[in-house]
Q: What sequence folds into this?
């Protein structure tokens, strides 16, 4: 757990965010620097650092995050055209905020593999 991140402050309401979806356990808000027409971050409200940490503690919450990501994609109108879910984990993957977040990216065609 790492409560001392910018996302913890967003959950606490200390930092503003453009929220698009919220449940008791999950919050989704638009990325400050969108990399596509739709770029939303889905996070657990509890400050787990990684998906592995969350899965070990609350496996059902992983399902809630993925379901929330699909809800976000559906509301944004990209569920049919397609979207990408990304969970950067650790230094080599460029995880810059140590509070688990699922990027929901879509609204344009994307290449593979990522750089
Ligand atoms: P990471 O590189 O850790 O996978 O992604 C972190 C993401 O958080 C980046 O896409 C970055 O633009 C976004 N981000 C960082 N700080 C803030 C913030 O204060 N508000 C919002 N909405 N997004 C942020």
A:
């Amino acid at each position: 757990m790492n409560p001392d991140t910018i996302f913890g402050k967003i959950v606490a309401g200390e930092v503003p965010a453009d929220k698009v979806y919220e449940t008791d356990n999950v919050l989704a808000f638009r990325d400050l620097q969108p990399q596509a027409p739709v770029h939303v971050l889905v996070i657990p409200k509890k400050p787990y650092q990684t998906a592995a940490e969350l899965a070990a503690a609350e496996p059902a919450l992983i399902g809630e995050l993925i379901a929330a990501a699909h809800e976000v994609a559906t509301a944004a109108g990209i569920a049919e055209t397609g979207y990408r879910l990304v969970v950067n984990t650790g230094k080599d993957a460029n995880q810059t905020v140590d509070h688990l977040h699922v990027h929901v990216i879509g609204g344009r065609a994307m290449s593979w593999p990522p750089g």
